[in-house]
Specification:
By secondary structure, the protein is mainly α. Helices cover about 80% and strands about 0% of the residues. It is built from four helices and no strands. Helix 1 runs antiparallel to helix 2, helix 1 packs antiparallel against helix 4 and helix 2 runs antiparallel to helix 3. The longest helix is centred in the middle third of the chain and has 34 residues. It is elongated, with a radius of gyration of 19 Å. It starts with 18 loop residues before the first helix and ends with a helix.
Length: about 160
């Protein structure tokens, strides 16, 4: 008889949440929290409080780079945990798809979109349409990644993968 509540923090064996599930939730929360904090709290605050928009953009860009690099590390750890620990294939596959999608977005933002935007800034084309277009693409992908982060955190809490 299964007495496990869908909202309890217990393992399949009735004990407290296992170290693997706890670590998975911690890493997922770290990645999501950094993403949300920098993207939706810190960056807008920089542009609201600093008179120099160029300096605000420089600082925000530096912070976004750190979030993407943190994401690469978190994704690597989460993917290893999903591959090593066995749980329901459906749970693993769903979380694997979310982590993989977030990883691809981090790679695109860090190694393709951000360098493209930086090149436009160096060329003095910040006020031009190309920079605005790339900034819009970047913002849209960041939003998508942020929504996936919510799915990851909720999914890891509701049905730990290990």
């Amino acid at each position: 008889m299964n007495t496990r509540s869908s909202t309890s923090a217990t393992s399949e064996h009735g004990g407290r949440l296992g170290w693997c599930a706890g670590l998975f939730q911690l890493v997922a929360s770290l990645w999501a929290g950094a993403q949300w904090t920098v993207g939706y709290l810190v960056a807008p605050t920089l542009f609201a409080l600093l008179d120099d928009r160029r300096e605000a953009g420089r600082i925000a860009g530096w912070l976004f780079e750190r979030v993407h690099l943190l994401g690469l590390g978190c994704a690597a750890l989460l993917l290893v945990m999903l591959a090593v620990r066995r749980r329901s294939a459906v749970v693993r596959e769903r979380l694997l798809a979310v982590v993989a999608a977030m990883l691809v977005l981090s790679l695109m933002l860090q190694f393709w979109i951000q360098p493209t935007m930086h090149g436009l800034k160096l060329a003095g084309e910040v006020a031009g349409g190309a920079f605005a277009t790339w900034h819009g693409v970047s913002s849209g992908l960041y939003l998508l990644q942020s929504l996936l982060a919510a799915v990851l955190v909720v999914g890891a809490q509701r049905r730990p993968p290990c």
